[in-house]
Amino acid sequence: MASPKIIIIGSGLSGLSLSLSLSNLLPAASIKIYEVRPSTHPSTSGTINLTPNGLRVLDHLGVYKSLIPQGFNFDNLTMLNHQLDVLASIPIAGISEFEYQSLRIERRLVHSALLQKVQEKSQVEIIYDSKCESVEESDAAVTVRFTNGTSATGDILIACDGIHSVVRKSFVKDPKDFEPKYTGQISIGGTITKSQIQEYNVKNTPYPIMMFGPEAGTGANFMIWPYNRAGDQFTFFTTLSKPEEEENWNGFADKQNLKSIMQETFHAEDSPWNEMVKKTVELSDVEGYRFWPFYLHSIPEKFYSEKARMIMIGDAAHAMPPSGGQGAAMAFEDAETLAYTLAAGFASNPGESGLNTPQGLEVLSKWSDHRIARMRTIQELNKRMSDMRKGSTGSTSGVMFTVKVWVIWLLGLLGVLGRTRRAINNYDARKEAMGWLAEGAIQAS
Ligand SMILES: Cc1cc2nc3c(=O)[nH]c(=O)nc-3n(C[C@H](O)[C@H](O)[C@H](O)COP(=O)(O)OP(=O)(O)OC[C@H]3O[C@@H](n4cnc5c(N)ncnc54)[C@H](O)[C@@H]3O)c2cc1C
Fold first, then answer.
1. Which of 246, 274, 295 is the last residue of a domain?
2. Closest C-alpha among 32, 43, 206 to residue 114
3. From the CA of 270, how far away is ligand 1's center (Å)?
4. Mind listing the pLDDT tens digit for each residue in 236-294?
């Protein structure tokens, strides 16, 4: 039985889910996760949406069922124009068609459920307050150095250190080409309760709601999304165009400033927006405001290093724009498919400490090619969603806006948006991995 020493950098959603899948498939492996954050604050905040493809992985890990009562479970997303007219009701998920509903939930709850499972595994250890500074691979091992002066050596290292990955820099010939680049979009959001705004939902439209406005200058989109089981706690957010990148985004740390931007955008005297949006902004508590600038980086040709001792997954490999709502789901897909790949790779390399053999490289390259192809598909969808949220910049006549509204309506009518969702939701990471790996090899591990 293979007993590799595996190092994971980062205990975010990809790092934790990977360690769980690996511990199930490689029970003799030793897994050490190094995390820059302190153990007292292991997760970032905010809410995320998880679609069936991501939830399926969490189900395989025995985590999903505990999350159902902690978040908002739903099937459809209602798209409206800025005057509350329905454009389309998009099937996002649903048990009969996709086995799972979609789940909007606080990110820290997903993180905490994964962490709890990891803590039950004696072969997995998390070392906090450890910031990876550099990594280096040789024919025999991989070594990671931390800013606190310590180092660690293992057989395989998996980069799960997010969009600003330090490890990614050592994969690629010219690290500058793979630096995160600002996309020119930011997101600002806050929280509100149903009881505060329901009277302004005059058509009693079911939540979650995605609204499209006429001009970028007056807000091009506005989302209202429940995130608890009862559906009475809402997060609201918008994606705004902001072409200039700020050096440190310090001005956006001020929550009052964030609320003011939202008021100027959606609540100006001549604002075309409906009362529900205006009241959401007006009544929202300043303390609930959050801000994210969107960054992306180029996807490398392959997700593993020259000597196959370093591999990357999640945002470290392929950050996704948050507007597509697929980043975490992709991280989970990566993690599960990679765990099966490593299990098969080690099983086909008895006596070897790594995967730098023809058999090892074969499974690894199949995994990498497959994941890159999947990324491209998802990126295309994300781009479509992101384009829809942009305003009809430059148009004051409203013609472009009318066209956009009709396109959304037509796509909904023709079921095109629903079909695209099926391509995302029906992905079963375990089945996919089985598709390119010899099942016998995995069981032999
Ligand atoms: C505003 C916003 C909304 C989003 N909404 C959704 C959504 O609705 N649905 C969805 O699926 N996805 C969403 N995403 C994307 C999703 O959050 C990410 O894709 C996902 O968290 C990626 O997981 P990860 O583990 O790869 O990276 P991360 O979550 O970034 O985790 C990286 C971990 O590595 C640690 N780390 C970083 N550097 C180092 C270092 N040098 N040494 C040691 N440790 C290190 C970090 O502290 C962190 O714990 C959203 C993202 C944003 C910003």
1. 295
2. 43
3. 38
4. 999 998 999 998 999 899 999 999 999 999 998 889 999 999 999 999 999 999 999 99
